[in-house]
Amino acid sequence: MMQEWFTKAKLGIFIHYGIYAVGDVSESWSFHNGVISYEDYMKQCEGFTASKFDARKWAELFKKAGAKYVVMTSKHHDGVALFDTKYSDLSVVKKTPAGRDIVSEYTQAMREAGLKVGLYFSLIDWSDPRYRSVYPEGAKPEDCLNDIYGSPAGGPENPELWEEFLQFNNNQIRELMTNYGTIDLLWFDGDWERSAKQWRMPEFREYLHSLNPNVVLNSRMQGYGDYETPELNMPIYGIDKPWEFCTTINSSWGYRPSDNNYKTSRQIVRMFCDCLTLGGNMLLDVGPKEDGTLDPRQEKILLDLGSWIHDNEEAVYETGRGLNYHQFLGGSTISADKKTIYLFVYDKPLEYICVKGVKTRVKRITVLHTGEELKWHYTGGLPWFGIPGTLWIKADEMQLHPLTTVLKVELEDEITYNLGHGEVTHNE
Ligand code: GLC
């Protein structure tokens, strides 16, 4: 069920932690796509130590980053559980030198730090033969001949085994939702390999609510979730449902030592601003090393993002979707009382920046992180007829924020719009 905390949270941290951090391969997909054999992939279990894993340190860092919730992989498509499950031996507790229940330490530490606790759970299990007992709905067996991990590869279907598999997933999810205190959010993945009917989604949703009526569910439930999860691609117009944009910090979800393709802190702040402008959350991924520590580059980006949020906090949490991009060529948010616009200025202005289509007159404009007051004036418009004209803000001499400068535009009253020629704004 959608909860207010989620839409107000704005920033979550995604954690892809698992045996795939041992080598230099992608999580689960590497064996599925034949980059590495299944046996070699699983050998990574021997190198998963979690020797420096300290969930409290993670929590401290995530708080500094400004996050309000976290989502960690409890089990990826490879089927390796990060928790102690009595329904399978395939877990880091039983199969790796780590020998610890990562989910347990994680959930405790996050909750203690006041963060909402989310768990990623892959519906797909490419290690479990029972998962391979039925074909994707509508697929022809001959199309699945090479699909050795996902389908029965040309053989007959076994609906009973499929029932067992669904029961197995339900059992593990019950463990997750009853052994680790309140789980605030479940993040499913891999729904696309089977249909809503095959997953029994309506019943599944009810089942989850019977375990926690308040749990927030992501959309990867074949239409039965609470919010959308655009992945690695910003929805240009936003989405008319609650949503969360998930993104890697470099090019990988899990840790890969060879991946040096890091985004800059400015890019990350910019992406975050896009989410805020369009009314969504950002779920920023980190991939811890097998020992549980984070690459310093990941840590640095999180801290930079946190310092930007700290300097501009009132433009972030207690706000909603901003102006549309035709009104202001940048991002923005609007305060909860609708009397303030926060403009995100990404580049160095050469002279004036302008805002169009806002009828309510301006009272004062300041640079949020310094308090410096800026000069402004209007051109055009017939305010007594509700025709706003153009607001020009003199912005070439202001002190810029190194990551993104926020201008606080205080209005005389609640914001109203006139977009001219009967056009509709997203904010109305
Ligand atoms: C994709 C991939 C998976 C990753 C997820 C994160 O769905 O299957 O590897 O965990 O994206 O959004």
From TrEMBL:
Gene3D superfamilies: Glycosidases
Record keyword Hydrolase present: yes
Any one cellular-component term (Gene Ontology): lysosome
Keyword Hydrolase: yes
Coiled-coil boundaries: none
Top class in the EC scheme: hydrolase
InterPro entries noted in UniProt: FUC_metazoa-typ, GH, Glyco_hydro_29, Glyco_hydro_29_N
Domain of life (superkingdom): Bacteria
Site positions (May be important for catalysis): C246
GO biological process, one term: fucose metabolic process
GO molecular function: alpha-L-fucosidase activity
Known EC number: 3.2.1.51
Keywords: Glycosidase, Hydrolase, Signal
Domain Glycoside hydrolase family 29 N-terminal: 2-314
Family annotation (PANTHER family): ALPHA-L-FUCOSIDASE (PTHR10030), ALPHA-L-FUCOSIDASE-RELATED (PTHR10030:SF37)
Purpose of the protein: Alpha-L-fucosidase is responsible for hydrolyzing the alpha-1,6-linked fucose joined to the reducing-end N-acetylglucosamine of the carbohydrate moieties of glycoproteins.
Family statement: Belongs to the glycosyl hydrolase 29 family.
This protein's name: alpha-L-fucosidase
Taxonomic placement: Bacteria, Bacillati, Bacillota, Clostridia, Eubacteriales
